[in-house]
Amino acid sequence: MLKVGLIVLIIVLVVILAAFIALSIYGRKLQKRSEEGQAQMRAGAQSVSILVIDKKRIKLKEADLPKIVVDQTPKYLRRSKVPIVKAKIGPKIMNLMCDDKIFDLIPVKKEIKAVMNGIYIMDVKGLRSGLEVKPEKKKLFAKVKGIFTKK
To answer: What are the φ and ψ backbone dihedral angles of 127, each rounded to 5 degrees?
Structure first.
């Protein structure tokens, strides 16, 4: 006869395993959907020369983006801060959204060549000169390790 504790443990392990399998299947579906969306965005992208005026992370509602952009965004994401770039494209000054990965690469008050789809900046290149890449900040553990290895 099996003990009650062993039976409960087996049931809990089965439930955890089932949840893990379900989450991995759901994650694969989301990843595939994301890759398809990225491919569509790359297909419609254009290379544009822009003059960056300012950049900052602000809430989506406060970014002065078109109303349709705010309406199409899910409600739980409207309060989150997004990277916004204020740029001059031709004679117009516009607020643009950009990818988190390239936000730190965008120089302020310089002209750059940007790969854009609508109001979304996907990639940047320096127009007249290369972009300065800032060195990554060391995390606390790496700093402490560096201090002890110098001695």
So the answer is: -80, -55
Identify whether residues 9 and 53 lie together within a single domain.
Answer: no
- Angstrom CA distances, 95 to 13, 58, 77, 99, 103, stand at 50, 11, 18, 14, 14
For the four alpha carbons of 107, 52, 102 and 145, in that order, the dihedral sign comes to positive
CATH number of the domain bearing residue 71: 2.40.50
Containing H/E element for 147?
helix 140-150
Q: 16 and 50: one domain?
A: no
Do 49 and 118 lie in one domain? The reply is yes
Residue-by-residue pLDDT tens, the chain, 151 positions: 568 889 999 999 999 999 999 999 999 999 999 999 888 888 888 889 999 999 999 988 888 888 888 888 888 888 889 999 999 998 999 999 998 888 888 888 888 999 998 889 988 887 665 666 555 666 677 777 777 776 5
Residue 17's domain comprises 1-43
